[in-house]
Amino acid sequence: MNVDSSSYREEFRITVPTIVVTGPTAGGKGRLASEIARRLSTGVISLDSMKVYRDMDIGAAKPSLAARRSVPFHLMDLRDPWESFSVGDYIDELRRLEPSLGSRWLIAGGAAFYLNALRHGIFRGPPPDVFYRQRLTEEFEAVGYQELHDRLAAKDPSSAQRIHPTDGRRIIRALEVMESCGRPFSELQALRRPILEQGRCRLIGISRPRDELYERIDSRVLRMFTAGWVDEVKRLCDAHAPSWSAQADQSIGYHQIRAALSAGDDPRERIPLIQQRTRHFARHQLIWFRKMPVEWWRPDEESELLASIDSSLDHYARAGTFPAPDSHRLRNDHL
Question: End-to-end CA distance of the chain, in Å?
Answer without folding.
Answer: 43
